[in-house]
Amino acid sequence: MPGVRRPILTSLLALTFALTTAPARAQVSDPFGAQSTPTPTAVPATNDQDSVSRGLLFGIAGAVLVVFVGLGWFITRDARRNLTPADRAAVERGDGSGVGPDEGERRVPARAKARARKRRRAQRQARKANRPR
């Protein structure tokens, strides 16, 4: 029985393709022939409908400018309302940092920085010495 199924399925598939392509062939009477193209008709140009006045463009630009200025004002007002006391002090000082040395920032002495640099340099040399060659 398995040997009979394959020819039946193949013939059904061929029949399906034959039936689906028959209507498509009937639609095309002359597939490679020259067909006449319709001549386009001229449409009268009306400039009143296609142009945008200069006043309207300036009005749109002004509205966009007003929206941007309003957004900037609102954002800066909201940011100033939500400042912490440390941030307020930094703004008044004008240094741009939010935290000064008296609010918990720890300053590292120059001697400690030099020791840390020396320690990092020694570690780097040790890594170089132990590289496989």
Q: What class do helices, strands and sheet pairing give?
A: mainly alpha
Mean pLDDT, as a whole number? 79
How do the helices and strands follow one another from N- to C-terminus?
A: HHHHH
- Main beta sheet strand tally, sense and closure: none
Q: What share of the residues does DSSP label as strand, in percent? A: under 5%
Helix content class: 55-70%
Care to describe what's here?
The chain is mostly helical and 133 residues long. 65% of the residues lie in helices and 0% in strands. The chain has five helices and no strands. The chain is flat, with a radius of gyration of 41 Å. The chain starts with a helix and ends with a helix. 0% of the residues are buried.
